[in-house]
Amino acid sequence: MKLTLVVACALVDADGRVLVAQRPEGKALAGLWEFPGGKMEAGERPEDTLIRELKEELGITVKEACLAPLTFASYAYDTFHLLMPLWICRRWEGTVQPLEHTALKWVRPGKLRDLSMPPADEPLIPPLIDLLGP
Q: In a 10 Å sphere around its CB, with 0-12 CB exposed, 13-18 middle and 19+ buried, how is residue 32 labelled?
């Protein structure tokens, strides 16, 4: 089974809310809410991928020093196995905007379970609640 490495980020605002993004129509799992991020390209470090993806998806600039690894998810889909490390980021430059997603939403960690999310994202929720509170 093919292993796919995808990096994700929990952007946390001053009120302790986490940003989630709605997957657009035409993509797998369209309409579900996910943590921003994306697939690593050949030769990229995970941190570089995350910085690139946050710029492409949300229009923000993140410095590597502002990324802190928190946890990871390991999930077997039908055709591939996904390994997804999750970073926390509390500081960035620019205004978050949905450049590649249908919508964005700031959510309290305890309310993340109320959203329809891809199965691989769900195991990332408890560590966020432990860190940030409900």
A: middle
